[in-house]
Amino acid sequence: MELTSRVATINDVPVIAALMKVGTLAVLCLLATPRIASPQQTVTFATDDGGRVCADLYGRGTRGVVLAHGGRFNKESWRVQADTLVAYGFRVLAIDFRGYGCSTGPGKDPPYDKDVLAAVRYLKTHGATTVSVVGGSFGAAASGDASIESKPGEIDRIVFLGAAPNLSAENLKSRALFILARYDSDDAGPRLPAVRAQYEKVARQKELIVLDGTAHAQFLFQTDQSARVMHEIVRFLSSP
Fold first, then answer.
1. Which of 38, 123, 185, 219 is deepest in the core (most CB within 10 A)?
2. What confidence score (pLDDT) does residue 7 get?
3. Kind plus residue range of the DSSP H or E element containing 136
4. Which CATH number goes with the domain that contains 86?
5. What is the pLDDT of residue 18?
6. In this structure, is residue 204 part of a structural domain?
């Protein structure tokens, strides 16, 4: 039975039991098995404020996924995750935000949500019938803001890694999955209370998964919980 809202922790026995089923084993096999990387092409497209986004495009199909990096990463950092998503039938667009790589755009306080929306619209105009977004850190926050600023139905789902929208999450127009480590902290302290507060405001279908550890956002993929995180992402993006 699918619940409208689910909060899980690493100590949640039913969740851990479920993770031993086929879904997680399939992700583990995909991550562990050597394979040829998915064909990739670099594309560029305009934002609605005169910016230009450079992105790597992987795979084919009608289910699109935008990958939005965090501050210490770039579009290339998603290569392994992009290949996994392609193996599950998704078409993937990993972007560089303005100021990263060859992406450019105006704004003293950069409107990164416009880069996400431009990527979503690029996939929609190139054959995707649905588009979801996976974001890490500030890329997750920008993705949430993009959902809030979007037209209804533009962004189907969002995965927030270690972050929440900057704007009030009660106005999210997308289903949402929040994943973060319990002791993920910045200079102000643990991020979990602020993320949980935003999570509670979400009116649409939502999930919050809290993992043990301190890894922030995309750094989760450098821990022994990488396969768990990828399993949850694939499950969430694939569910009806």
1. 123
2. 62
3. strand 130-136
4. 3.40.50.1820
5. 42
6. yes
Mean pLDDT by 10 residues, the chain (240 residues): 44 41 48 55 97 97 97 98 98 98 92 98 98 98 98 98 98 98 97 98 98 98 98 97
Measured CA to CA, the distance from residue 71 to residue 136 in angstroms comes to 8
Is the pTM here over 0.85, yes or no?
yes
Decide if 3 contacts 177 (C-beta within 8 A).
Answer: no
Residue 30 lies in a domain: no
Its domain, for residue 212, covers 5-24+37-238
Residue 212: DSSP 8-state? S
In sequence order, the 6+-apart residues with CB closer than 8 A to the CB of 237 are 63, 65, 85, 88, 90, 132, 134, 157, 159
**175-181 vs 130-136, strand pairing mode:** unpaired
Phi, psi torsion values for 40, nearest 5 degrees: -140, 145
